[in-house]
Amino acid sequence: MNSETLLQFLAVYRRRGIGKASRQVGVSQPAISNAIRRLEDELKVTLFNRTPTGVEPTTYADALARRAEVISNELDRARLEILGLRTLTQGEVRLGVGPALATSLVSEALASFLQERSKIVVSLLEGLFDELTEGVESGRLDFAVTTNPAFPLSDELSSEPLFSGQFRFVVRPDHPLAHSRNVRPGDLLDFPWVLPPSDGMLWHSVKTTFDTLGLRQPDVRVETNSGGCIKALLRSGLYVSLVPPYLVMQEVELNEIAILSVPSIQIPWDVVVLRRAGSTASPSTEAFLAHLRDTLGSDERARVLSGANQ
């Protein structure tokens, strides 16, 4: 088994056909068929079943493809890293980011990072936790910046703390609660809420918090993972939401959304960098991570992250 054979296998797996794979990798159909046959002989399993329209992978092929995908991504990364080391000007950074940071801190850090590194290519995926972790585990992403989960990570991942803060209660500026010095938790229950879906970590924290306070659960009218939807609803009605502060930082600065002071409720927002366990980052990736940490350390808005809802 070698890298060329694995790449040909992946082409057949993805395209579901020998002919389509042949055109993709520029190798003759007989050569690819022979490579698959040798691979099956080596592993002593059947990888594909022939169909009238092509081939269908077996469960053995599914298992091999998961590992071959990682190898393929690592080979691509190695080529780019060696090119970057040789020229000292090129490289690639592939990262995933949660919605709260994609349009603010990370994008701003990325813009300043690239000003002096015009030949580094960046691929940024904005997504939710499951999508980001899958990308890191498969090797498609070098790392992901996301909220630290409340459950243990898989053995495929390692995490590094980036910063800690608090989720913040937010409303529109003319909301009845917007000018209260200290909002009582019960006051929040007089208004409709918009939150991420109820099977998520934040909803669980809200439920536990209000149970502990001996209060009924909030009236959650809308459940959504869309930051844009949350902000639009806040602007259009008397909704209350609980968000990572960077999600609404620009709107707060423009006085389109107000942060409430709720001293008796503190729900942590811990952000981590996720990587594939045992992987080695390229120089360009490490350079961007260092720049991101420096940007966070010098960002005056970070004071909003360090305080509670007060």
UniProtKB/TrEMBL annotation:
CDD domains: PBP2_LTTR_substrate. GO terms for molecular function: DNA binding; DNA-binding transcription factor activity. Residues 1-58 form the HTH lysR-type domain. InterPro entries: HTH-type_LysR_regulators (IPR050950), LysR_HTH_N (IPR000847), LysR_subst-bd (IPR005119), WH-like_DNA-bd_sf (IPR036388), WH_DNA-bd_sf (IPR036390). GO terms for cellular component: cytosol. Keywords: DNA-binding, Transcription, Transcription regulation. Belongs to the LysR transcriptional regulatory family. This is LysR family transcriptional regulator. It comes from Microbaculum marinisediminis.
